[in-house]
Amino acid sequence: MAARRKILVVANRAPVVYERGADGTRTARRGGGGLVTALAGLVARHDVTWVASAMSEEDRALAAERRASFEETAADGSPYRLRLVAHDPGVYERFYTVVANPLLWFVQHYLWGLGSAPDVDPALLEAWRHGYVAVNEAFAEATLAELGREPGAVAFFHDYHLYLAPRLVRARRPDVVTTHFVHVPWPQPDYWRVLPDRLRRPVHEGLLANDVVGFHTDRWRRAFLESCSALLGATVDAAAGTVTYEGHTTVVTAHPIGIDVAELERLERDTLVLQREHELVARRPELLVLRVDRTDPSKNVLRGFRAFGVLLERHPELHGRVGMLALLAPSRQDVAEYAEYAASVEREARAVNERFAREGWTPIELDVADDFPRSVAGYRQFDVLLVNPVFDGLNLVAKEAMLVNARDGVLVLSENAGAHEELGPWALTVSPLDVDGQAEALHRALTMAPEERRRRAEAIRAHLRRHDIREWIDAQLGDLDRAAAMRSGREGRSTIPS
Q1: pLDDT band with cut points at 50, 70 and 90 for residue 33
Q2: Which of 30, 58, 257, 329 maximizes the CB count within 10 A of its CB?
């Protein structure tokens, strides 16, 4: 096990959200999102200070009270420090609902229909300056303050919310070693031209202020190298995986995030999960197709429903025998594009059901709720798992569900999911826009011979156990060591007289 280190995690979301109970007491509940789950092992094994946005009203009250980091305790009892950054609500709304989502998210998942959107108009530029830039400046200030308290710490930035902060930190603390992990896809250079140079350049320059930039897949890593060359004119060494820009060299790596195997195995025995599974078994059809997603346009739920409809049209022998269970969590409903997509998902499910349902059989069961125990119960019971995102940085559902499934379920996986780079050899690969191909893949999965199902499922489970979350954390720390050694070597050479 690696020695304990001082690590400053800088991310939009905190591991906890604070609330005020009916009796007036302050309570803390676990924060949402895959990042919180992924970094739980980091908190357990190292001395972590977490810098995050104050999300709730009680978060903001606590931030005003403390004005610095304070001691907290993780769900497993591990101690860490937390610093909450409070933003003006209007500034944060511009940051989150105008720029981060949907603008950057849509760019990085190839979601814009460029004939009509986006418009880089005065309102968007205002949101950039007085939303995205302002929030990144606040994060940089908080990061610098915590680095002052812990001068030997490394800074670990996360995701598309904070592309500008590393450059702001480096300008004042060039000695600090920093890394930035991008959890979403990285599009090809031409698609970045959706944004004008005055927006896309700061994104790239902010990332290149880090010593390390990490991605889930080699595909996204290569695209980033290409973007740095094409859009900035940076010097790229593809073989070494480095980018040199304005005299600074950044190591660019690819490590797919793993899952916490022990935590998932504990969860599948949880009382609430077992209750949800009992309820599901009581009503499940003979054959169950599962999808677990957020109501996010990138997840491609609509085409999945349409493919299921094509399957039913072509194979009437499956009527009454097969059902699709769609366990969806509401996502970013304060963003218009997401709210509209969630409504269209409900309409599409209703259309399929109106066409094919008969007494005692509803083809698509749609359940929209934030209920992870329900999802784990679904993981246990599926015969086919449909994961068909338009693009996805990784997709943890494909890993979590395949690990705990008890029926040798078959994975139908989009070629544009980051997880495909690992799991593709044992999945049925589909193009996310090919509704016909997805229908065919669903039929193949439903009719696959038991021994073939078992072979594929066992291979995936073995892979997931070998490449778990601890491997990913160790890889991040190893990358930091490599970058620190490279910097030390350069600094050492610079002091040798010519």
Answers
A1: low
A2: 257
Strands 16-20 and 70-73: unpaired
pTM over 0.90: yes
> What contacts 24+ positions apart, CB below 8 Å, involve 262-267?
263/37, 263/40, 264/376, 264/400, 264/403, 264/404, 265/404, 267/372, 267/373, 267/376, 267/404
Domain 6-257+472-486 has CATH 3.40.50.2000: yes
Architecture of domain 261-467: 3-Layer(aba) Sandwich (3.40)
What is the edge-to-edge ordering of all strands in the sheet holding 410-414?
364-368, 322-329, 287-294, 384-387, 410-414, 428-430
Cα separation, 85 vs 55, in Å, equals: 9
Interhelix angle 435-446/301-314, rounded to 10 degrees, is: 60
Encoding tokens for residue 307? 């493919």
Domain ranges of the chain: 6-257+472-486, 261-467
Q: What is the pLDDT of residue 498?
A: 22
Asked whether residue 40 carries a pLDDT value surpassing 80, the answer given is no
Closest CA to 211 of 451, 6, 478, 18: 478
Asked if domains 6-257+472-486 and 261-467 share a fold, the reply is: yes
Residue 59 neighbours by CB distance under 10 Å: 23
Please list, in sequence order, all residues whose beta carbon lies within 8 angstroms of the beta carbon of residue 268, skipping any fewer than 6 positions away.
376, 379, 380, 404
Instruction: Give the ranges where 315-368 is alpha helix by DSSP (H).
Output: 336-356
Task: Write phi, then psi, for 82 (nearest 5 degrees).
Answer: -130, 135
- CB-based burial label for 355 (10 Å; 0-12, 13-18, 19+): exposed
Q: What is the pLDDT of residues 61-78, one digit of tens each?
A: 999 999 899 999 987 888
- When pLDDT is averaged across residues 396-409 and rounded to a whole number, the result is 97
Structure tokens at 395: 């997709």
> Which sign, positive or negative, has the C-alpha torsion 333, 334, 338, 343?
positive
Q: Which burial class, exposed, middle or buried, applies to 242 when counting CB atoms under 10 A from its CB (0-12, 13-18, 19+)? A: middle
Residue 238 burial (CB count, 10 A): 13
Distance CA 179, CA 207 (A): 9
| Helices vs. strands in the chain: H and E counts, helices first | 21, 18
Q: Calculate the average pLDDT of the chain.
A: 93
Backbone φ, ψ for residue 306 (5° rounding): -65, -40
Q: Can you name the residues that pair with 67 across neighbouring β-strands?
A: none
Q: Average pLDDT in the 80-95 region? A: 96
| Beta partners for residue 429, in sequence order | 413
